[in-house]
Amino acid sequence: MKITNNSHMQRFEELQELLKEFCPFAKERMGFSNYPSNITFQDDAENASNMLGKTAYYDPASSSITVFVTNRHPKDILRSVSHELVHHAQNERGDFDQDMEMGEGYAQKNEYLREMEKEAYTEGNLVLRDWEDGRRIESLKEVFNRRGVRLYDRLMKRLLR
Q1: Model-level pTM?
Q2: How far apart are CA 14 and CA 9, in angstroms?
């Protein structure tokens, strides 16, 4: 999977490292076989100035994701990536093989597309949350393993008083 940075985003390298952890987790949980061909992080000041501007989109023809990053928190960017990865999984399953109108209000006008969006919002958010919670637990385990013996000794001394 290629990652393209067409942005001036600070901390891009850190985000890229998180993606290296998150994408395999998402692949396993969402069940897609191949990664998208490309994830592009794109600056777009005009889009960012629109309070209800686009956050990201998936192109099923090229299996690519574009995420608009101007003025966005990295976690929100990851949330968009996760949402679009669900669309990628849907594409691999053949859910995009129907003739569909994707214009303005598509998720309100077409029940089939609405269900696809529901899946992307629900599954995308839950997979990101599960990954994030797993990272926290692993961090706590690491801290406990480093301090565990001392902590255990102190707790035992208090209990045995």
Answers
A1: 0.84
A2: 11
